[in-house]
Design goal:
With 130 residues, this protein is mainly α. It has helices at residues 2-24, 27-34, 41-62, 71-91, 98-125.
Length: 130
């Protein structure tokens, strides 16, 4: 169970850093990277969402014995991000660099396998009904 707790906290820290980056980067950078309007409300909202998910995951990891029913959702979040990134690239609507795309795929695949593997290991270690 401690492995899963550590993995979930690691992912929560990564989400918080990612979310904070949307608050700290200047508006002109958001406009050049994401081609969003320069008001940056969408980007700030996106960052707030990641910070909220990080906070939720951190709290669930703190009470892991009680909230094991919510663990698999945190393995699905990076998996869904991976599907969206690959779908956008396959549809031809992705206009970013291939290096950035490769990084997104690598990071989301890493967290999908890491959290999913740790959750699977924790289930084998201590069954959910025990």
């Amino acid at each position: 169970m401690n492995i899963l707790r550590g993995v979930m906290r690691f992912q929560a820290i990564a989400y918080a850093i990612y979310g904070l980056s949307f608050f700290l980067i200047p508006d002109f950078t958001i406009g050049t990277v994401f081609d969003w309007d320069t008001s940056s409300y969408w980007a700030r909202g996106f960052g707030a969402t990641f910070i909220a998910v990080a906070w939720l995951e951190w709290n669930i990891a703190a009470k892991l014995e009680e909230r094991r029913d919510l663990v698999w959702q945190f393995a699905l979040i990076p998996a869904l991000l991976l599907v969206v990134a690959v779908w956008e690239k396959a549809a031809g609507s992705y206009e970013g660099s291939d290096l950035f795309f490769g990084m997104v795929v690598a990071v989301t695949l890493f967290f999908t396998i890491l959290v999913g593997g740790a959750a699977w290991y924790a289930e084998r270690e201590v069954p959910a009904g025990a």
